[in-house]
UniProtKB/TrEMBL annotation:
It comes from the Bacteria. It catalyses: N-[(R)-4-phosphopantothenoyl]-L-cysteine + H(+) = (R)-4'-phosphopantetheine + CO2; (R)-4'-phosphopantothenate + L-cysteine + CTP = N-[(R)-4-phosphopantothenoyl]-L-cysteine + CMP + diphosphate + H(+). It comes from Pseudoxanthomonas gei. This is Coenzyme A biosynthesis bifunctional protein CoaBC. One of its GO terms (molecular function) is phosphopantothenoylcysteine decarboxylase activity. Residues 197-405 form the DNA/pantothenate metabolism flavoprotein C-terminal domain. In the N-terminal section; belongs to the HFCD (homo-oligomeric flavin containing Cys decarboxylase) superfamily. In the C-terminal section; belongs to the PPC synthetase family. Pfam families: DFP (PF04127), Flavoprotein (PF02441).
Amino acid sequence: MAKESASHLKGQHVLLCVGGGIAAYKSLELVRRLRDAGAEVQVAMTAGAQQFVTPLSFQALSGHPARTTLWDSAAEASMGHIELARWADRIVIAPATADLLAKLAHGFADDLVSTLCLATTAPITVAPAMNHRMWLHPATQANLATLRARNVQVIGPEDGPLAEGESGPGRLSEPEAIVASLAPVAEALPTTTPGALHGLKVVVSAGPTYEDLDPVRYLGNRSSGKMGFAVADSARRRGAEVVLVSGPVHLPTPAGVTRVDVRSAAQMREAVFAAFPADIYIGAAAVADYTPRAPATNKIKKSNESLALDLVRTPDILSEVAAQTQGLKLVVGFAAETENVAGYARGKLVAKHLDLIVANRVGVADGGFESDQNAMTAYWQEGERVFTPGAKTRLADELIDLIVERLDA
């Protein structure tokens, strides 16, 4: 699959920079995946990376000696680090440690990897990996915001078990997913200007809602919130004032975004309308369609062979927003479907009186709720746009580009 989805890497010079973390071992497989996709790969390693993996291993897999220091007299006789920076069509940093992200954000150049990144004009992609507390720390998130503002592509990290026995966001994305997510160089930069939404207020809803059955159990869905959070971050980077209304998720708040956490559909509706007036509403949340009529005050005990639940419809937030008259310029909905995606999406576009709807198929591999990848199509009354499948962060940028276009339509 990586070969098919990363055909744009064929013939490209990829400089893989390896940071010092236990996830460095995955970078060996990443070299193999990049070469399978047709790229020529050279490797540069930090001192920390060499504590986990040997340069000889990367040399064997890449076919080139791994570079490890600025102080290689043979290589630097002809300013080798500058030559390597010029050679690269793109730079991929995996794993990108918290220390490396900080160096990149603040322009440090005190070792080979940071110097190469400062000396290149090639697009840079980082695949972070670290302890979840380090990832969620405001300093790390601020550094990421700085890098994203410079059009650095960020892939991952994933949520799951970590090397130290804990669990949370911080796992390096799998090599195949990194290769599949690498944005084509020609498409790496947003097509709209950084300030395209300056002076506008954008409200984004994201994640699932949980409808309590009793103090222990709830009805929910598998939405991770990743797409909505990426959209909120992209809108903020284009200059918008952004309010993000989030259901229960384990994601860091994008820098500069005002976040409101909710649990139920009723709470989400209240928070969304409390955030108005606004110019744009993007309903990316997977809001529950039904909620228990009367949640039990005590835990429901196991007794009979079957259990019937009395459920009632929740408010249709998207339809209510589209019907209100508080000066919204654009209302954007999302449709997660398992079949007849185009038909159901266009039906919702008309029935809910939306300006734009974004549809994707869920329940498939390499896309949907829990993945870092997605494949989606946007529909409006006069047309549609199919987005190239890839990382949700890139797709969020492309969606905001489309929203800016539709504002002027």
